[in-house]
Amino acid sequence: MARRDGRELAFQALYSWNVGGVDIDTLLKFDWKEPEKLEDMGSDVLTFARLLTTGTIEHIDEIDEIIKKHLVNWDFERLNKVDLAILRISVYPLLFQKDIHPSIIIDEAIGISKEFGADDSYKFVNAVLDNIRKDLPEN
User: What is the CATH number of the domain that holds 82?
Assistant: First the structure.
């Protein structure tokens, strides 16, 4: 559950960055969460969320190109901003966190999209991430 909390925080931060233009220093404070909830999450969760957020933003061009390459009959510019944030925070670990199995990353993305996305977002997110996973080089 701890990693899930971290992924949700990173998703919310990336969404705010994309939609609201919030700067990264402000994002990494997670001010929108109640202080006691942040404290309950613990430092490991916050560190993981910060890693996902900063890593995704640092590699945003590469991540977006991979997403664009794997969209079938869909224009990147028309992507729902919630789905885009979920895809971005999921592609980052697929590419750069090889210690996390791709199926875990995809399952977490599906869970977040069921909670925060539109009714069928999880199907779209699953399809795009699964296509990306299939193209990843084997370790």
Answer: 1.10.940.10
